[in-house]
Structures are given as structure tokens and as C-alpha cells.
Amino acid sequence: MLTEDMRLIIDKARETGWILEPDAKRLLALTGLTVPDFGLAATASEAVAAAQRIGYPVAAKVVSAKILHKSEAGGVAVGVPNASHLTDIFGKFSALEGFAGLLVEEMLPGSELIVGAKVDFQFGPVILLGIGGTGVEIYRDTVIRMAPVTEKDVQAMLAGLKGARLLQGYRGAEPISVPELIRLMLAFSALVMDLENDIESIDLNPVKCTGSRCVVADARIMLRGF
Amino acid sequence: MDYRPLLNPETIAVVGVSLTNDRHPANVIYNKILLRYPVKVYPVNPRGGMLQRDRVYEDISRIPTKIDLAVVAARAEFVPDILASCIQNGVGGAIVISGGFAEIGRRDLQDRLVELARAAEFPFIGPNCLGIYAPSRFDTFFLPGERLVRPEPGTVAMVSQSGGVLVDQMVKFAEQGVGLSLAVSIGNKALIREVDLLEYLATDDGTRVIAFYVEGFAQNEGRRFVRTAARLSKPIIVLKAGKTVEGRRAVSSHTASLAGDYRVFSEVMAQHGIVEAQDEFELASFCESLSCYQTAVGDRVGIISVSGGHGALASDVCIARGLTLPRLSEQTRQQIRDNLSPSVRPIASLENPIDLTGSAVDEDFVAAANGLCSSPEVDAVILLLLPYSPGISMDLGARLSYVLRREGKPLVAYVPHQEKYRMLIEGFELNNVPVAASIEGAVLMVEAIRRCKTC
Known about the structure:
- The structure holds two protein chains of two kinds.
- Chain A is of the alpha+beta class.
- Chain A has two domains: 4-34 and 109-223, D-amino Acid Aminotransferase, Chain A, domain 1 (2-Layer Sandwich), CATH 3.30.470; 38-106, Dna Ligase, domain 1, CATH 3.30.1490.
- In chain A, 34% of the residues lie in helices and 30% in strands.
- Chain A has eight helices and eleven strands.
- In chain A, strands 1, 6, 7, 8, 9, 10 and 11 form a seven-stranded antiparallel beta sheet that branches.
- By secondary structure, chain B is of the alpha/beta class.
- Chain B folds into three domains: 1-125, NAD(P)-binding Rossmann-like Domain (Rossmann fold); 149-292, 3-Layer(aba) Sandwich (Rossmann fold); 296-451, 3-Layer(aba) Sandwich (Rossmann fold), CATH 3.40.50.261.
- Chain B has 16 helices and 19 strands.
- Chain B has helices at residues 4-7, 25-36, 79-88, 107-120, 163-176, 194-202, 221-231, 254-258, 261-271, 280-292, 308-320, 330-339, 362-374, 396-407, 422-429, 439-451; strands at 11-15, 40-44, 50-51, 54-55, 69-72, 93-96, 124-125, 131-134, 138-139, 153-160, 180-185, 209-214, 236-240, 275-277, 301-305, 354-355, 380-384, 411-414, 435-436.
- Chain B starts with a helix and ends with a helix.
- The A-B interface holds A 18, 68, 114, 116-118, 120-124, 126, 128, 130, 136-137, 140, 142-146, 153, 200-203, 205, 220, 222, 226 and B 216-223, 226, 247, 252-259, 261, 263-265, 267-268, 271-272.
């Protein structure tokens, strides 16, 4: 069920047509999904203060209603090591179109997944799970299920990925926590069912999964009629 | 709505027969029903008169018996009044053959039919369709009987948005020996849609397998369809057209781009245990196989052949389709070897695929089939029978079918579909063993059983 706070976030974004990343993450956190420790900075000194609290290195991302794809616009920096770098980045990103702040986030380890949703014309809400990152549309290693999904569905989805072995501890890597992924998928599926009439599609990409948690590192929520 | 009179009529009125043109669709339908089917049929035309030596009724109301089904093949603008008259006179249902509705932009005319029908709980199929083909009961296809390739009565029901595809699929079914319980062309599907027939066919005792040719569903209709399908215990097979047609909406997220219309369709079907056929050849193979076997199996296949090449070709198709060919244990091989005829025993290869060689006789097939069917190492058995081989008799089909009946493990045969091998083929088919006309078809039949989750 959507709470009043969640409803407010969605209504605020109607004019833009999509929910800006900090708000999208607040919405996801309210439904029980794990998001990175983050701070939204309007000035360089606020950015540095946030980074100090979170601990270096950090990720820094531009927040702008004009920039839907941040990487393509040159609005993402990862592994920022210290305050002087962060101050430089703030200066550079603040020149981007529609700059509304800098998102400072903890750096997350783990395997990259994409978790998505779309309201399909014929079938209504569907959920997608795949190998994530910036190459998703190149590798196209994804599995789709009609929502709501069950625990069994999530397990079948994982097994259906070509890259499933990459997540199971391939060549000494840490296997991802399947129970945590299931928890994320079930909470996300419930949210998508609640948002059926509000959204067009959602990308959680990447979701960073380790042996202990799955964290939504980036989120884009496209509203209906965008 | 009660579909029974519409789908099982004893009395039919054909509305729109011509008094002057024997080739008018309504006349073709009237004549074939009159001459070929065990139902009473009445011609209707507002002008009355005589058709051949029968009275033409001016209106449904003039017919002295209660009509179960009205077949309407009159001009589109007359159809609303005809349906109203059907409703008024207690007709059970209608098939509107006529075109000239939504498909040419007359959505208004079509909506009037739907309003009338909904208000009166009056079921109708169409408009713009061929209607129904029910083997040896009745059919409303306006195609002369002698031009149709007519499948035998059987247990497969097929529902198609396109009449042309349905008729063509019937040719494939007839070639493949797939029997039909009912074939329905739903045309513009103004009132009765895929999901309605799915619900009806689920309760129809004569139908064991339900197949659909789908072009697309209305908004959220796909969700209702798969939800209904998942509740049923009968296998459902779907062939989708328009796989490459995508919506023209601009795509702004990765998910929207990755989850295109067809991918969603295909994966949601699989999620709900519906077997999707890629083409009409797969559809016919899947239908035949699932009309014989409805118990889910694993992916381990055993192959029996008299030619190493056939075994190798079949293996390749199995692997490409995600099936596996386990190695047979020494125990299984020994059991088969002990029962082979003396001339075959030293030369047969009992690896999987088993190659009995061109010297094999019926008993060798029975020995190999017995061995594989009773072994826990394989889930299904494919027999590649080459009747050119002189040791194979025409009785082998029936004999091998008894092995299946005893062991209960799916057995699928490949026999070249030539008239001279008909007895061999029927020996299988009449005993509920599906026979493919190609090696690939035989593998597809096993794949269907493996993929059918509702089985």
C-alpha cells in the first residue's frame, strides 16, 4: 500500500514526467528496499560534508530534471577519493543543464544487476531481472515475468540468466545473497503493483549485490504519459 | 452466457442465402450443412421463395422449430436487425460471417452488435470470420467441402483470429494426423474472444488440447488469458503472429527497451505453462504430442534407430532444443542385448542413440523399446523407423504401442509419411503414439511434453 509520503513524491514528479534519483531512492527506501547512504548537496561544502559523513571514496551524480541519462551527459563520477576532487566535480557538474544539486553516495561493492518494471499493454505490470550495468542493452541477458512475482518465480528468473554463474561465486568471487535478492524482488514487485496506474517503467540499474545485501545504486522511475 | 447451443447446434438457420447465386457464401454454407451433416438447416432470405426444392423463410420467426444457431452472411448494415430478430425469437447464438465492420472502420456498426448481444446475453462469434468447423457435426466455412482438407475428428481444439491461418493449419493437422474436436475462426472477436473460448473448452469433455493463433490481445486481456490458462489442467499451445511488430512509443528506459511487446508475450506465456509454438509446423507437432501425453517429463531422451546417421541428426536436434541424451548403464544395455536377435546382437551399437542396424527385425525394436521404457535413465523415447529396412513389418507400430501402454513412458515415432507406410503409422496413431513426418518433428513432440508445465 502506498503511504501518503510515497504519494507526495509521485505527485511532485508529475510535471517532469519522471522521478529524480534522490526522490526515487526515498520512495524505494519507504517500501523497504535498501538504498546507499546518500546526501543531496546544493553547494560544494555541503557535498564535502556529506562525503565526510559517508566516508571516501564516494560516488557523485548530477541531479537534474533535464538529464535522464546521467552517464551519457557526463554527470557521474565514481571512486572520488577526497574533498578537493569532490569540489572540482561539483564545479564541473554544476554547469550541466538544469543542475539542481549533487548526489553524494557511498561506493558499493558487488555484482551489478538490473531490476526493472514496465506496464505492458497486454499483460499489465511485468518485472525484469538481468545482468546490469551500462552494457545491459548490449548483453540483453534478462528474464521477464508477469507481476506480482513469487519467491519461486525469482529463483526461476535467476536460473534463466545466461550469466547466472557469474552470481554464484564465479572464479572465486563472492556469491550474491539469493535471500536478499528475493526480498528486494518481492518488495519491488509489490510496489510495482501499487504503482500500476502511475508508472510507465522503472529501471533499478545497477542493483549492487554482495553476499550480505542488495542495494539499489541507481533508480529511474518513468511516470505514465512521459 | 451459454455457448452450448452455439457450439453444439441441432438446428441451424443460414441467414442471407441468395435465390439466384449458388456460389454466395451463405449458399455454400447452407448446402454443405444440408447435404453433409446430421443437423436440421433452414435457409432465410427476406424475399422468401424456394431454394432448390426447399422453402426459404422470410425471417427467423417463420421457422417452425427453435433454432440453436443462426449463421449470418448478409450485408453488414442488415446484421444488427438480424441479430435483434434472433434474440427475439430465442435463437441460441449466432456466427456473423459478414465483413464490413471494425476492419473497414465501421466500429460503430460492430459496437451495436455487441450492445444488443450483451443486453440479451446472446453469444455470437465474429463478425468477419469463417466461424466453426466441427468434424462430422457441422461447419460454417464458406469454402466448398471438396476444396477443404478436412482433419479427422479428434481431441485438439483450435481457435484462430485469422480464418485463412485456421484453414491452412487444418491442412497441416490433416497431414500430421492431428484430429480436431472444434476449430473456431473468431475474426474481429467483437464479443466472444480467445479467453471466453478458453474457458468453454476447458470444460468441454471432447477437447484435450487447446491451441490458439493469436495476433494480439486488448489492454490487460493477456493477463486474464494467462491467469485463466494457469488454472486449467489441459495443455494450451499458442502461435503468435506479429513477433517483430513493436509499438512506436519512444523508449526512455532500459527496461522498456529490453521488455519489448513480443518478449513480454513469450516469457509470460512460458511463466504460465503455456507452450508457445514458433511456427505452424511446431504447432501441429505440439498438438499431436500433447493430445497423446499429458504427464510432465524430464529432458532425458533415448533414441532408437536403424541408421547411425538418423541417430546423429536426431541427437543434434535434441541438444539444440535443450534435451539431453544420457549414457545408458551397462545394466540397461545388457538387458537390451540379451533380447536382441542373434544376427543383430554382435553388430548393434547400444550407446544412446541405439543403432540396431539395417539387419534389425521387429523383435529387436521391441527389445530396445522395452529396455529404454523400463529404464529409469531416460524420460522419453524417440523411435526413428525407416520402413525401407526389410526386417521391419507393418505390424511394428501396434506392437511397440503395447510397450508404451505397459510402461507408461512417452514414446514418439518418426516414420516417413508415405501412403505405403500408412498401416505402420496407423498402428502407432490408433494406439495413441504420435508419429512425426520428420526427425525434427519427433524431437519437437518430446520437447512439447517437457515444456508443458500444466501436464
